[in-house]
């Protein structure tokens, strides 16, 4: 019997060491460094191919100034994807379900883009507060709305990631418990629930990757506006 | 074959006799640098054996992941033991 559905999101500690530490340091182990050889092993080749494709995709529309951010955004993407995907394994802890972690990722990077934009080209960044072609009467209201939307961005980024992952994990737990308890009573219904569970797990794998990608993509878009 | 005498501390773990275990443990380097270099050496051994090979498969990473799942289970056991199916809780 689940005593509390949200217990899975508490960071457990063993001998005073939180599991969060292990979960956060695991991605470091899984990605080896490229060797000083012409041809690498298979794992490294796949890894380099993936990273190169991602960088091409995100940084092509950006001007050269923005390319300095490639390492930060790529490491962020790899970190988030690994954390999300590892959280789908049984008994593991997903640090990205904690709002504190996601806000800690979103707020500093967003703030950097805003401050950079304000310093280098203040007129241009302030110009983003007013979309082109608005009727003159609407200008004051629209500026206020756009400012609010600017300040909500880090909150939206953090909460989007947290909510998606938390909801996914909760759903998996609920449907799995449903299938488990229905099995002795009504096997046919339990079979349907198990199919639903399977499809949901596939969805969760996709969501894990997509959410990390969206996070980094939006940050790169904010960067493009301001740099 | 008579080997040259090696100081106890420098032997590998499998070569240390049971009685010498205490001396061996006492002489090991437990400073942060020492711990990090031990982790580094272990990592290099694993990497060069299972991942940095010409035709590596999924086994190298799969072992790491299964180990991670096992460690997470041990870590969360106190938490999970309340989820057992009992008639009376």
Oligomeric composition of the shown chains: heterodimer
- Globally, the shape of chain B reads extended
Number of domains of chain A: 1
Radius of gyration of chain A: 22 Å
What do these coordinates show?
The complex is a heterodimer of chains A (227) and B (89). Chain A has 227 residues and is mostly helical. Chain A has one domain (44-226). Chain A is 70% helix and 2% strand. Chain B has helices spanning 21-27, 32-51, 59-75, 77-80. Chain B starts with 20 loop residues before the first helix and ends in a 9-residue tail after the last helix. Classes of the chains: A mainly alpha (227), B mainly alpha (89). The interface between A and B is medium-sized, with 24 and 28 residues.
Summarize the structure in short:
Chain A has 227 residues and is an all-alpha fold. Chain A has seven helices and two strands, in the order ββααααααα.
Write the layout of secondary structure elements.
The complex is a heterodimer of chains A (227) and B (89).
Chain A (H helix, E strand, L loop, with lengths): L12 E2 L2 E2 H12 L11 H18 L10 H17 L12 H22 L1 H6 L11 H44 L4 H40 L1
Antiparallel strand pairs in A: 1-2
Helix pairs in contact in A: 1-3, 3-7, 4-6, 4-7, 6-7
Chain B lengths: L20 H7 L4 H20 L7 H17 L1 H4 L9
GO biological process, one term (chain B): proton motive force-driven mitochondrial ATP synthesis
Keywords (chain B): ATP synthesis, CF(0), Hydrogen ion transport, Ion transport, Membrane, Mitochondrion, Transmembrane, Transmembrane helix, Transport
InterPro entries (chain B): F1F0-ATPsyn_F_prd
